[in-house]
Every structure is written in C-alpha cells, then in structure tokens.
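#struct-help
A.M.: can someone run this one for me? Single chain, 486 residues.
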Amino acid sequence: MTDLMHDLWFGAFLTPAANDAHQLMRQAVLAEDAGLDIIGVQDHPYQPSFLDTWTLLSVLAARTQHIRFFPDVASIPLRPPAVLARAAASLDILSGGRVELGVGSGAFWDGVASMGGPRRTPGEAVAALAEGIEVMRALWTPGGPVSFDGEHYRLDGAAPGPFPPHRIGVWIGAYKRRMLELTGRTADGWVPSSSYAEPEELAAMSAIVDRAAQDAGRDPALIRRVYNVNGRFSRLPGTGFLDGPPALWADQLAELVHAYGMSVFVMAPTEERDLKIFAEEVAPAVREAVGREQRQTAEPRATTRASLDESTRPRLPKRDLAELPPAQRERGLHLVRIHDDLREELAEIREGVEQVAAGRGDVAELRSLINQLTMRQNYWTLGSFCASYCRIVTTHHTIEDEHMFPALRAAQASLAPVIDRLEQEHEVIAGLLTGLDVALVAMIEDVDAIDGVRDALDALASALLSHLEYEEQELVEPIARLDLDL
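D.P.: on it. Structure tokens below:
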C-alpha cells in the first residue's frame, strides 16, 4: 500500500476525564486555533471517572466552528446502534457536518457487563458490530420505514432520520483478523493506535483490510487510515517511535503516509504545548514532504483527479435502486444515459486526437506545402469538434446548476452538501474546458502543439469522468425516488 492521496488530517486524542472538564474545553479550542483538523475522544461508558463521550462531543462542537470530531471509538455494546445513529446525525446537523463515527466491538467485557451490556465472544462481537453498522446506515438513508431482523439488533418499521448533512464516515477500531476483514468489507475508515499496533505491525494488518475490500468488490483506497499516536518531543532523537524533535516526527509520519496510506494522525498530548508543536511544526512538515513526493511521482492524470479532492466529497446514504418501482428507476437512469452520451463523445475526441497525432509522422521536412496544408485542415477540423464538445458540456452543467440542482435542494435538504460540491466541480471543469480551448488555439498556430492538446484533453477527461461518476452515485437514487419535474 502506498499514499492513497487522501487529504492529510492532524488531530488531538482527548481523554474525557471528569476532573479535567475545563482543560478539555481549553484543549479543544486550542486545537482549532492551532489549525488542527479533528478531535477524537475515547469512549468507555463504564468508566466512572470519565465524562460521557457524546455529551462532551456536543459541548466541544458548540465551543468550536471548524474542527471535526469523532468518538475514538464508540463502544457499540453500550450504545444501541439505532440510538447512536440518531445521536451522530443530530450532532452532524448541529455542528454543520463535522462528525465522523469511530466504532468498536467492545473488548472490555467486565466493564460492559457491569453496566448491563452483553458479554460477547469475539465472533459474536464482530457479527454484532456488522449488524450495528447496517442498522445505522439504514436510518441515515431517506425512504420508508426500516425493518431489520438480526441476531443482535432489530428494527420493526423504524422511520429513518434525521439525515446527516454529509456522509458520516464509519471508522472501525480493529486489530484482529475478523475485525480487519469487517473493516475492509464495510468501513469508511480504519482506526488502529500505536499503543496496540506499532508501525512495523501495520503492513500485515493493512494487507488484511485491503484483501477483504477487494474480495468484497471495493477499492481499498477508499478506506481512510486513521492512526492514534503518542510520543515525546525532545531536542535530541530518542530510540523509539515519535521520540525526538518535530523534524523526526514529521519524517516518521510522512513515511507512514507513503508506506501504508495513513492520512489521519491523532495525537494524545502530554501537555498543551504538544498540541501547538504538533499543529504548527509537525503537520506542515508532513504535508510538505508528502506533497513533494506526490509531485515527483504522480502522473498528470492522477494529479488532475486529486485536484478534485475526491476523498472529501460528501456522501449520503441511499436506498438500493433495485427496491424502487420500475418507473422511478427509469427516471433516475435518465441522467446516466445523458452522461453516457458525453462519455461516448469524449471517446470520439480522443480517437480524433490520436488520428491527427498519427498523421504527424507523415510530415517531414521536405514534404510538399499541400501535405502541410492538409495536415493543418485536420487540425482545424479537430479544433472545431473539440470546441463543439466544450459547448455541450458547458450547456449540460448550466442546465443542472440553474434547474435540476435547485429542485433537488428544495426537495431534500440533506442533498445540499452534495449539490454544493457538484457546483464547485463544475467550476473546476469549466477551467479545464478553457485550458483545452487554449491548447487548440496553440495547435492551430503550431502543428507541433498536439502534445499540449493531449495533455489538456487528458486533464479534462480525468476530471469529467470522475465528476460524472460521483454525480451518478449521489443523485441517481434521489432523482429516481423524488417526484420532481427535472
């Protein structure tokens, strides 16, 4: 596994000690002011010296404006998934889409049992967590009443909602094979901690996650790798992991990005100054090192796809399209057919470019003027074809922006983050269309400028195909389900 091109997040891991409540408030504000991205709070409801994690997360979210939060990780045996789903969605709404959901299967069974929770075998714990995740996602998905008859959890006509404004990532804390395989099959993220999984152990664990994802038909690169870390800042390097000056921390964390695709580092601070050092010295150095490596190794197409920042696209739960009546399915698939026309025409443009490029081999220094003029005519024809396609794509996006998107936003408020993102990507694609037009003008003036057209077309194709796929994934089901005149 290598760098998965996710945005890098850096955060603080807080212990919800009841006797340090004011310090926790101060640390959360300090973390945000210092520029950190996320705060994780451990969840042990059976621990009498701890504040309740969800109550604390709600208060911290109210004290901040931008930083994200997640339980690191929630104890599913003591937090019924149906109730946890509503709690997470509620906090996501109240915080403006700043919640992710770390979940765990249990582990401290004496504590769980002391609070009236179930004492499960390892196999039962994994199965119960899998059911719990299915229950939560069902209740985050718009639609009719939900029924679920599992071995550990049941729903009997529960109404879904409230709906989170962004797709809440379900991140599983996992170390053993069965939990790692569950992560690969179903999760949006994987959360190990350096206290239990040292860096040299990550390769084998990550391989299990990746293999399970592939076996389930999923892309392992979609799974965020979240690493809880602790260490010591000192002037001179020590002998252990994260033991030394900030530059050493940056080198070691950057290596974890390159080697295992880790993209979220959540540090447990020993004291408050650690947060500032982590945010102001370590995080920028890691970002610079990783960015430098990406610039050196990424191909133009990968760079273009990353410019759309696919990892931060909002995702919403959806009903299975197969469950809808045929007439509704047909309404949703109309968007796919429109997109298929754009894809087909894009392929024709690619073929046209390659035909022109192949013709360049016939243009020699002593070829006649006629041949050169014939080649120029080919360039003019290609330019006209590409320009027409640019106008078609622009018109398609304008129709969406001015008619379809407002109707969808009005019909289902939870779609707003997705629509906002699609509108932003329209601007990115508009810029790439302009770049292709500039390359075509240069090509008409210079017969050797075909490579510039190729590069511009590759950039447009990569971004546009990614954008169309994302739009279909998020909007086909709502378009099908909602009774709108689109």
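A.M.: thanks! The domain at 321-481 is CATH 1.20.120.520 (Four Helix Bundle (Hemerythrin (Met), subunit A)).
D.P.: also worth noting: The radius of gyration is 26 Å.
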